[in-house]
Specification:
heterotrimer; A mainly alpha (281); B mainly alpha (337); C alpha/beta (323); A: 281 residues; mainly alpha; C: alpha/beta; eight-stranded mixed β-sheet
Chain lengths: 281, 337, 323
């Protein structure tokens, strides 16, 4: 365990950018977890007298059109946005990666069916498909998660399939087979762990994309409804204000959004560089 | 060449089938009562029953599927609840607006990203290279709607350079006679420079917003592809034969590098069409994206489905174009097909 | 020296590479002359610096490489001092290169005829209308059957041997005075090897073109070269006319190389391997004689800096105790 920690520290030290992204990630998770305890005001409390005030000592990020404190809302939104994205990524990974592994490992019909399914999803512009799914299933938060998960599954399936089809001929897999292990057991115990690094990179990158997706859907009015604080909705609420010059209503949630996505993208890039420098772009 | 196009068209068919199946599932196989969705929240029991019958929802699923395909073949996409008009008509009227925006954004994006990537690849670790890398990393993180709003704030509110984000043309102007549906082109065709210019001014910010979004992956891929190609054996051999730097970079290296970039464009288009919807909302652009958004807010169901189908078809066509272009540039692809 | 004014004269060339694990001194004080119309073979193990010498000549070294000393006199000018523009003019017109991966040396998405036309239009003052004709002539000259039709072919449609012929056509299109052939036959099967080498010899002879034949195959060198220069770990260790090199090798390494080269009447058991490996040229403490670690004739005086000693007419050896 000590050796692993030391190695992690060495590896992170070599890549300052990845380290910075990792630090930011920790901060984001902390804000999400500690949300209710660090919010300076109640995110849902309106105050018509102090509507649309610019950033000040009392309200660091200003107030919105009904007087709510923007900073508190942003902190509260962190929990929701990260939560949605995380749930979507986990779901996406669970179904997509397993389907892909099975496709790559067993080949034949499994590969054809999974491939066909993935191609069909990818035949749509992904955000448009997400819109269609949420519209079809209903305008609720869980459906945003499902829609985001579905459109990201093909990506995992593709990565997993490629790795599995290479690994199925690997020496240690042959050895496990000769040892009498069932195929399913080999898939889960041998092949999956070996594809985890690549899949972990994918998960980090998808987190960024899932956050953007959820925010985009909320921006156009799907999924989350006011007064729930969520970054996308807050930007939408601030959109009409920006034209009249009250920039802070949309800017701060937008920056929070950017920062979160940036963090996950950098993290994913850094992880990818660590795992396989050849894939660096 | 025709063999290439033919084979690519054939390859696109499974995609079309898949799209039709999925949209069928989305429209007909909804949890709850699809008829109620289509009839709208204010409908009576009678109205819902009528809708159910007219949509064939009281038949078996396979039967419904064939009815659906027949409807599609005849361009029947249902009617909008709020306007009562056929969805297909509205889509066709609004499509040129979306296409004009998307195409312009793409052209702008490519015009900036490709030279940036090429220059960055030729001068590793120069300021151009660093700029390219920053653009690539930051560009994918920027939420399109946020960028759009920022641009509006800076260029409209602060600087006053851009017109108000209120659609394709300022109210003072009327649209030019419709030949292509693209206001700029139509304006020029009609010899009406003023209208064409006004249209250009309106489309500038939304196109820029979209372009910024797609800059990143294109620049990144161009740089990577050029770097890879420039270090390959045949480039070294070409240099050994004394070909000029210009010819080596632009004719030998660039054309080879375009192949992976073209492949990336497929994915870029997916993001582009999605981002299109968001930009249309921010700039009140009367395209099919805002049509769908308005319908969503009204719980008006048929337009949304029509929109998804239309976007999917546009996407398939765009991918087809890329496939054909790829085959034109790379003769090896024709043989493999 | 075979002539008073050799076509190419490399003297004391040293090349370094900066790498993450240190500075690699790939070439150290390499000297080599090539006369007009002469075929000189540059022979040595992989990693001995043969290709580096060629690329240094052409100015096509990796960006991490630096020429730290020496001169490359060609046609009266020092190539080291020339700018990129001048070098571009020279490459393909005065000096050409063919290398060991013929298909890899061709642009995969451009018809071979067009690639040939590119080179012709670049260097030769030839009218655009004449180019196609010249292309077909060149392809016929290198022995490609049905050249008019083949000119429209892509590299993936041609065999390895054909691709090599095309690269030869590219190299010879503008009748250079010097051709560098870097392992031209390594990627080909044996029959094609002989055919390609004969073609090269014939074309070189017809136009009095000098050739530097880079190879690890001493037998090949023996058959086609007028003189052989033996390299080891970035040094020139021996240089002599072919017949004399085989008859009386003076450097222990050369002798071992000859012993390790199969001849028609050698038995497998009689072939002798050369003990040891090439020294790690990243080490800062390399001995002056980089062969000394593997040499059984080594003595105390082998520690001293190496001279290049003349041991016969145009026969040089870098050894304190030549055989």
């Amino acid at each position: 365990m000590n050796a692993a920690l030391r190695h992690l520290r060495y590896v992170l030290g070599e890549n300052l950018v990845t380290l910075a992204a990792f630090a930011l990630f920790v901060v984001l998770v902390a804000v999400a977890v500690l949300g209710p305890w660090i919010e300076p005001h109640d995110p849902l409390a309106t105050d018509a007298m102090h509507a649309l005030t610019p950033p000040s000592a009392a309200h660091w990020f200003g107030t919105d059109a009904v007087g709510r404190d923007i900073l508190s809302r942003i902190i509260a939104a962190t929990r929701l946005d990260l939560g949605i994205a995380f749930a979507a990524v986990v779901l996406s990974f669970a179904i997509g990666a397993l389907a892909g592994l099975a496709a790559g490992y067993f080949g034949g019909w499994t590969e054809r069916v999974v491939g066909r399914a993935a191609d069909t999803i990818m035949a749509f512009p992904l955000f448009v498909l997400a819109m269609g799914i949420v519209a079809a299933l209903g305008n609720t938060t869980p459906n945003i998660v499902y829609a985001t998960a579905i459109i990201n599954m093909p990506l995992y399936a593709r990565v997993a399939r490629t790795e599995a089809s290479v690994l199925r001929q690997a020496g240690f897999v042959e050895a496990a087979r000769l040892g009498g292990n069932s195929e399913a057991r080999i898939l889960l115990a041998q092949v999956l762990p070996n594809t985890m690094p690549l899949l972990a990179v994918q998960m980090s990158l998808t987190m960024g994309y899932a956050i953007l997706n959820a925010a985009g859907l909320s921006f156009i009015g799907l999924g989350i409804s006011p007064p729930t604080p969520e970054w996308g909705i807050m930007v939408a609420e601030g959109a009409s204000n920006i034209i009249s010059g009250e920039w802070w209503v949309a800017l701060f949630p937008g920056l929070a959004l950017m920062l979160a996505v940036f963090c996950f993208n950098l993290l994913g890039d850094g992880l990818r560089d660590l795992i396989d420098p050849r894939r660096r772009t | 060449m025709s063999r290439l196009i033919g084979s690519r068209l054939l390859a696109a068919i499974p995609g079309v089938i898949g799209v039709v199946v999925i949209t069928f599932v989305l429209t007909r196989a909804l949890p709850g009562d699809p008829a109620a969705y289509f009839a709208g929240p204010a409908a009576t029991e009678q109205a819902i029953a009528e809708i159910r019958h007219s949509l064939g929802l009281d038949r078996s699923l396979p039967e419904q599927f064939f009815i659906y395909i027949e409807d599609l073949a005849h361009g029947r996409l249902g009617n909008s609840l709020s306007t009562g008009q056929p969805v297909i008509e509205e889509l066709v009227t609004r499509l040129p607006a979306s296409i004009e925006l998307t195409v312009l954004a793409l052209l702008l994006s490519v015009a900036i990203a490709v030279p940036l990537g090429i220059t960055a690849a030729q001068r590793p670790n120069s300021w151009v290279d660093h700029l390219c890398r920053i653009v690539s990393t930051a560009g994918v993180s920027l939420p399109t709607f946020f960028t759009g709003l920022l641009l509006v704030y800076v260029f409209y509110y602060l600087l006053g350079w851009a017109p108000a984000p209120l659609g394709r043309l300022d109210l003072v102007y009327s649209p030019p006679p419709a030949r292509t549906g693209f206001y700029i082109v139509d304006g020029l065709l009609a010899g009406d420079g003023a209208t064409a210019l006004a249209a250009l001014r309106q489309i500038a910010l939304p196109a820029l917003t979209l372009a910024i979004f797609t800059l990143a992956p294109i620049a990144r891929m161009t740089r990577a592809a050029m770097l890879s190609v420039l270090s390959s054996d045949f480039i070294r051999a070409a240099r050994a034969n004394g070909l000029t730097r210009r010819r080596i970079v632009y004719v030998y290296a660039f054309r080879n590098a375009m192949l992976p970039v073209l492949t990336t464009l497929g994915m870029v288009f997916s993001f582009l069409l999605g981002a299109n919807v968001l930009v249309e909302k921010v700039f009140a652009w009367p395209g099919i994206g805002s049509y769908a958004i308005e319908a969503l807010i009204d719980s008006d169901y048929a337009p949304v489905q029509g929109f998804v189908l239309a976007m999917a078809v546009v996407y398939i066509l765009l991918n087809l174009v890329i496939d054909i272009l790829y085959g034109v540039i790379d003769p090896r692809a024709t043989v493999a097909a | 020296m075979s002539e008073l004014h050799p076509l190419l004269s490399i003297s004391d060339l040293s090349v370094e590479f900066r790498t993450r694990s240190g500075t690699v001194r790939a070439l150290e004080k390499v000297s080599l002359d090539v006369g007009r119309g002469e075929t000189v073979a540059l022979v040595g193990e992989s990693g001995s610096g043969k290709s580096v010498t060629a690329y240094a000549l052409l100015g096509l070294l990796d960006p991490a490489a630096r020429i730290t000393s020496g001169h490359i006199m060609f046609g009266g000018a020092d190539l080291r001092g020339l700018g990129e523009r001048a070098l571009e003019e020279m490459r393909g017109r005065e000096v050409s290169l063919i290398s060991q991966n013929p298909r890899g040396a061709l642009n995969p998405i451009r018809p071979v005829g067009k690639q040939l036309a590119d080179v012709l239009l670049r260097h030769a003052s030839i009218a655009r209308t004449q180019v196609q004709q010249r292309v077909v002539e060149m392809l016929a000259k290198v022995g490609i059957p049905d050249p008019a039709r083949r000119a429209a072919a892509y590299p993936f449609e041609l065999s390895g041997g054909m691709c090599q012929r095309v690269t030869i056509a590219l190299a010879l299109a503008c009748s250079p005075s010097l051709l560098i052939a870097d392992e031209p036959t390594t990627g080909l099967d044996v029959t094609t090897q002989a055919v390609v080498m004969d073609l090269l010899a014939e074309l070189a002879g017809a136009s009095r073109m000098a050739t530097i034949l880079i190879t690890h195959d001493l037998a090949l060198a023996g058959e086609y070269a007028d003189r052989i220069v033996v390299m080891h770990a970035g040094h020139v260790v021996e240089s002599a006319p072919t017949a004399e090199l085989f008859a009386r090798p003076r450097h222990p390494y050369t002798a071992k190389l000859i012993a390790a080269t199969p001849k028609p009447d050698t038995r497998l058991a009689d072939l002798a391997a050369i003990p040891g490996n090439l020294p790690d040229v990243r080490r800062a403490d390399l001995p002056h004689c980089r062969y000394s670690a593997r040499c059984e004739r080594r003595e105390a005086r082998c520690e001293a800096p190496l001279p290049l000693v003349a041991v016969g007419q145009s026969h040089m050896v870098a050894c304190w105790q030549p055989l």
